[in-house]
Structures are given as C-alpha cells and as structure tokens.
Amino acid sequence: MKYGFFDDQRCEYVITTPETPLPWINYLGCKDFFTLISNTCGGYSFYKDAKLLRLTRYRYNNVPYDNNGQYFYIKDGSSIWNPGWQPSQTRLDSYECRHGLGYSRFTGSLNQAKAEVLTFVPLNDTCQVTSLTLTNESGETKNLSLFSYVEWCLWNADDDMKNFQRNLSTGELEIEGSTIYHKTEYRERRNHYALYSVNTPVDGFDTSRDAFLGTYGSPAAPVVVKEGKASNSEAHGWSPIASHQINVSLAPGESRSYIFVLGYVENEEEEKWEAPGIINKTKAHQLLSRYQSDEAVEKAFTELTDYWQELLSGYQVSSDCEEVNRMVNIWNQYQCMVTFNMSRSASYYESGIGRGMGFRDSCQDLLGFVHLIPERARERILDIASAQFGDGSTYHQYQPLTKKGNADIGGGFNDDPLWLIAGTSAYIKETGDTSILSEVVTFDDGGEGTLFEHLTRSFEFTVTHKGPHGLPLIGRADWNDCLNLNCFSAQPGESFQTFGPSEGPVAESVFIGGMFVKYGEEYAQLAELQGLTDIAESARREVSSMYDTLLDAGWDGDWFLRAYDAYSQKVGSSECEEGQIFIEPQGFCVLAGVGIKEGKAQRALDSVKERLDTKYGIMLLQPAFSRYHLELGEITSYPPGYKENAGIFCHNNPWISIAEAVIGRGERAFEVYRKTCPAFLQDISEIHRTEPYCYSQMIAGRDAATHGEAKNSWLTGTAAWTFVNISQYILGIQPSLTGLCIDPCVPGDFGDFTITRRFRGAVYHIEVKNPNHLEKGVSSLLVDGEKVDGNVVPFVEGKKEYHVTAVMG
C-alpha cells in the first residue's frame, strides 16, 4: 500500500494522502533556526536549542496525532478547512504534500478554492518564511476568510509544560500592525523575542488561545474561525498565540499570495529596552523588510535550493539501481545533515528537552557528513572534545548552547572516548588537515590540552580500564545503552546496587574491544603523521594484545561473545539460556579485521545470517529475553522483539554489511543494505509506518507482535553508518590518509557505475567497470589515463580534477 512516491528530478517525496500511518515529517533549517513540519503542517520551531529557545508549542503523545503546528484555516461560506488537512480534518477535494530539501509544499483544494503553501527557513536569517497562495478555480467570485495560527511556547520547553503556577501569569505580547510580538520574560532575563507577521494589512487578530479556540474549544474548530470574525484579543498570561485574519475576495481565476514570517530576534543587552515593557524592534523591522514581496521570497528559496544542490553534489552515483541512486544522491546525505544539526535532540520521538547533543552520537554522525561540510565538522569535533574529562572519560551528552556536559546524565559509557578518535580520524582522512590535532581544547573538569592529547587520553582510558579477561570495562554501558552489566543484585534477596564506571564489579565489553582494535590503529596512524613513532609503536602493541584477547576470551566457538557480566559470566554465548548471540561484536570485530585470517570472521557472519536474519533486517540478539534479568539491566525490560531486546536495530545492520564487504561478500553486503533501506520499503509502508524517505532507529523483530514496524525515524546513527557503508564499502570510495582508495564490493550483477566525488578541494570522476561480474577486487586503476599500482588514487596538492577508471578483477 502506497501513500506517495519519490520525485527524483525535484528531490522531493510526494505524499498523496494526509492519512499516513504516522506523521511523516521534514526538517527546515540549516544553521540556527529550525522547524519540524509534518505532512499535515504539524510541528514546532526553535532557535539553536529545542529545550531552551523553543518558539512554538508541540504536544507529544496527543490524540489525535500531531495536532499543533503552524496552521492556516480557510473559511468558505460554512466550510472550514486547512490546506494540510489537519487540524480540522475536513475532507478535501485534493491534497498533496511535497517534502523537499529544507522545504515543504502543501496543496489543498475544496469547493474550487485552492491553497498552495511553500514553507522554508532561509539560509541566512533566523526565521521561517511561508508563502500562501489562494486561487479561485470557480466561475464565480469567492469571498474567503483566511486565519493563521501558532501557539507560543514560553521559551524553556521543559518549564513550559510543568510550571503552570508561574507560566500562566507571564505571557506577554505586543501588536504592531500585522506583526504580533511574543516577548514573554523579556522584561526579566532575556534579550530576545519572537514574532509572527504577514505582509498585508489584517482584518483582525488574536493573541489569546482561549479567545481564539474557545475555552472548551479545540484547534479542530476554533470558535473565532466558525464565527468568521477575529476577537482582537490581547493575552495577559494564560496561553498566548498569534493569529491573523485576512478577508479576501477573489474573482474567477484570480490568485492572491501572502507572506508569513515566524521569526526570532536577539538584541544586544544594551538594546534591550526602548522603554519599560517595550521591546526594541529595529532588528525585527530589518528582518521583515527582506520578505515583503513574492520576488524576495523566490530569491531566498532559490538560494536555499542552490545550496542543497551544491552541498549534495559532493558525492553522486549513477548506477543501474535507482534506489541506490536515490538514497545516496539525495535522502541519505540529507538525513546525515539533519542528524548533524539535531544529534538526538528534536524529532517526533525525541521531545527536544531531555538530551541535548550526544557525545557518541555526534562523533558517529561526523562519519556521514564530514565530506559535505568539513569546516563545520572541524568545529563540531572541538566542541565534542570539550565534554571530555582529564582521565579520558567523557560526559555522555552536552548542551549545544553552552557546550557544557550534561551533569544530569553524567558519564561512564566506556565506548564514548574511542568515538572521539573515530570522528577525528575521519575528518583528517577527508581533509588532510592535521592542524586540528594541535588545537588546544579544555577538559570539562579543568585543565586543557591539544586535541591529540585528548585522543591520547581516550586511547589510554581503554588501556587502563580492563577487566579480568583483559577486555575493556563496560562501565555503565557501551554502545548498547541498555546493557547495564554493573547494575545488579549482589545475591538473591539483597538490595539492588548501581555501580559507576570506575567502582564495583568489573563487567567487560567485547564490543569495545573491537572498537579499540579499529580506532586504536587509527590513533597510531595519527601519531605517525606527527612523527611520534614511539607512541605509534606502543599503541600498536596494545592493539595487537587486544586482538589476541578477542580471539581468545572474546570467542565463543561460532561467534564473538558480547560481554562478561559483573560476575564474569558470559553474555552472548551458546551457554546462555537466552541472548546467546548479539549483533554488535560480530559486525564491529570483523569490520576491524579481527579473525579474518583465522577464519573466525566468516564463521561469525555466517552465524548472524543463520540466527539473527529476518526479511526486515538483522535482529540485535537471539533468543529474545523472556524475563527481566537484574544482572543484564534495561535490555531485558523490553518485551521480546522490541528495541534492544531482539529488535532490529537499523544502526548496526550497516556494521554487518560493512563486515561482509571487508571479507569480500558483495552479494550478502548488499542484501543486508537493502533490507533496511527506505527506498526499498515504501511498498510496505502500512507495515513499516515511518517515513519511506529516511532511516529509522529500530524495526520490531521476529518475536514482536508487530514484526516489521519501525519507530524512531530521522535522528539515528543509522543515517551516518549506512552512508559510510554504501559510499565507502559497497560502492567502495574510501578516503584515506594518502588519497582516495577505490575498493568496491558489490553483487555480481550490480553492473558498472560512475561516481562524482569531491575530495580535498578536487573533483574526482570515477568509473567502475565490472566485466566479469565479480564481487570484490580491483585489477587495474587508471588515473588521467596513466596506470597506477594498487587501488589508491595518489593525492596531488593543488590538482583540481581527476579522471579515474577502476576495473574489477
């Protein structure tokens, strides 16, 4: 069952019914101002931080779904409708939503009146611009009333939904012509305000929610809209909104357009007051002056579309598989940019108030966007490093406004330090910029050091935090936040205990061991780049020792163990009653190269296919846990088949695909790739439910009643890791310290393909030929017509264009 289709030419997903299985959303904004918008115009806006600088309210877990947003009501006689269907849910004669790159379009019609809405966030202004065009498609004059509507959030989204005894008395607004200013708390402690404006004189306004909706009304049928007359209400406390009324008379065939601007303005502290209680509007007037005409809006919109076209042109593939082309060229890279902007803070599953930026999350996200915006990747790495402690451990999250660690969550996730090496290494491979290693960055608990010193402490943290088997201590958890092996009941009947990262029992992680082998080697390479050969040699001795430990204490016979718990009992072993095999170490150990020459890597991946595979992707573990295990923690709190308890985590399915590519099994690598790839799934949207143009975090596993149903779309490391998988391992264009490596691993029938790739200021035109239908191996490499030994295109400083032909064989 389909709810829409891809328009690849326009880089849009076209939704043809508003009644999608779940709200299907888009993200507007590239820098500081962001809006989440659904296919029915639901969503919310914020500036930089979805918790602390929220402009508009959104109600999660509401009934019906998604019923607060930036809405337009059209009253046509007795009919009341919305171009995006919600919230009135009036049955429309036609409906279409087009989600594009940084913008969304909505077209709705009823009784021969048509409304077209284009909404986007301009590149260089802190606002959302919405152009609405009304057209009379009938043969008679139509008299319509148009009502806009947004509900203000009182800035701190967390406080906004809890502190009613205060907040219901603080709402303040100001009306100036067609502009409504939201200045709540400006008088006390803020030097910013919000506004909602339209570029035409209005026939009325409302700023009181009770007046607009009715005290017992709802957004589905506001009393003001039903009566067809704004009340000109001015809110004093309670729940402030912004609504404009525009009455319009349209002759047959006539169209009329209106431009609405939802904006954020920040004054300098000394500009705070013009007079007591009156905001300084100079910057607001300047902002609004830039969006008063259709031509100005079209110019800003063209700048936005040109920006995205240029940005995504950094990696483009042309192959016989349209789904691969679609995801690589458009949607996967687009989602990587969204996760760069949002980390895991603001989606329809993350409320924007609880997490901030994740340390591990942001490091992994770097892998997917570093080729697009390396200069911003550099900045992000330094921000992340400042959340590290002097001993090498880290805060698990930090706030984007303050760049300070989130003390409420704390640290103790012992995989976090190694991800800083991963992100930094990826940046240097991409850019060749080793100067970042000399940048001085503070430690969160005091002191400072170069970025390389931060990486050294990350490396040494793992070296100095090992358990009785020589494997890394897991701390509170590793990548799997719910595998809490140091939270346990010491003996039956004794009280539950929680241990921090450096105290109490000594649970160990095989997964972190695999990470250490991969990123320990990359740390050694970065040391060598700086001439630090002693450090590099010492690091490789540690890596070699961990490699041997993984093949000994980390091996279960047919697959890698997952861990040892606080009692040194095996986790993820054939000896276990439940949870005998986990996906994470099979993928990460093999992609790190562990066990390949010994034949164990192939056995581990065969075990994954035999025991974890389903038609919707690879499950995290099997068999699912049927009861709660204190010694394993939260992972066993989920019902079988959901989330970490044997759900299909799309995030680590790419690790298996990469591992298969590393050992040369292209058919299997691509099989794993396509099972969770949205472009291959739109025909099962009634099962999958989430958006068919972006990746989700998880899919219900085989043990679940809703096997195949996805959750937690958009903000997931799946985006970055899948792009790494398809772009670097399957299509095989890998940045390295010495140049661009060409090493594809594809199904035998994949066919020839071409790739355009920007790399270190040059454009590479790459043609891959596979005359013998092989899965892996490059037999010859031509660069600008000259044969090159090996499969790395040597980087030449200053050269701007390369023409490369690789023949598989």
Automatic annotation (TrEMBL):
InterPro entries: 6-hairpin_glycosidase_sf (IPR008928), 6hp_glycosidase-like_sf (IPR012341), Gal_mutarotase_sf_dom (IPR011013), GH65_N (IPR037018), GH94_catalytic (IPR033432), GH94_Enzymes (IPR052047), GH94N_CBP (IPR037825), Glyco_hydrolase_94_b-supersand (IPR010383)
SMART domains listed in its UniProt record: CBM_X
Any single Pfam family the record assigns to this protein: Glyco_hydro_94
Glycosyltransferase recorded as keyword: yes
Gene Ontology MF term list: carbohydrate binding; glycosyltransferase activity
SUPFAM superfamilies membership: Galactose mutarotase-like, Six-hairpin glycosidases
Keywords from the UniProt entry: Glycosyltransferase, Transferase
Residues covered by the Glycosyl hydrolase 94 supersandwich domain: 12-277
Highest taxon of source: Bacteria
BP-aspect Gene Ontology terms: carbohydrate metabolic process
Every Glycosyl hydrolase 94 catalytic domain range: 307-732
PANTHER family assigned to the protein according to its UniProt record, in alphabetical order: CELLOBIONIC ACID PHOSPHORYLASE, CELLOBIONIC ACID PHOSPHORYLASE-RELATED
Name the record gives this protein: Glycosyl transferase
Natural source organism: Eisenbergiella tayi
